[in-house]
Amino acid sequence: MKQFTAEANLNRTDRVIVASEVLVTVVRQAALEVPGVTGLAPVAGGVNRLLRRGKADGVVIEVSDQTATVQLHLRVAADCDMHVVSRNVQAEVARSMNKIVGLTVASVDVFVDDVEFNA
Fold first, then answer.
1. Element (H, E) at 109
2. For residue 55, is it left (φ>0), alpha (ψ between -120 and 50) or beta?
3. Beta bridge pairs of residue 8
4. Which of 70, 72, 66, 71 is nearest to 104 (CA)?
5. pLDDT at residue 106 is higher than 90
6. N or C: which end of the chain has fewer CB within 10 A?
7. What is the pTM of this model?
8. What is the distance between the alpha carbons of residues 86 and 34, in angstroms, rounded to a whole number?
9. Would you say 50 and 13 are in contact if contact means Cβ atoms under 8 Å apart?
10. What does the alpha-carbon distance between residue 5 and residue 89 come to, in Å, rounded to a whole number?
11. If you write DSSP's letter for every residue of 8-27 in order, what string do you get?
């Protein structure tokens, strides 16, 4: 299990260690709360070196120097404005990662991999 240490706003002797699975869960839940998102799609191809679980969940996260980059592969409802949904997902994921885990998010790349007509 890959972990990272969050040290922002802590004393020099304090550390908070967060498992990578927690990051995947935070990102996944934030995305699923956005209206128009019907689910996450598995990441096609490639190797996710940091989070093996996230790849199957449609989430790829890399953390470097207390900053995260996120890729999300989504399924969205056919009757939604995909651009608006994608922007809302980006904002919600960045807000959640910062509020819940204390990480700064450098980017949230959203890929719409599927459309559901009966969502």
1. strand 104-116
2. alpha
3. none
4. 66
5. yes
6. N
7. 0.80
8. 9
9. no
10. 25
11. TT--TT--EEEEHHHHHHHH
| CA angle at 107 for the pair 101 and 112, rounded to the nearest 5° | 105
DSSP 80: S
**Each residue of 29-68: pLDDT tens digit?**
999 999 999 999 988 655 444 444 445 579 999 998 889 9
- Write down the pLDDT at residue 65: 83
pLDDT for residue 8 is more than 60? no
| Complete domains list, the chain, with CATH | 3-116 (3.30.70.1350)
At a CB cut-off of 8 Å and minimum separation 6, what does 52 contact? none
Q: Which residue type occupies 113? A: D
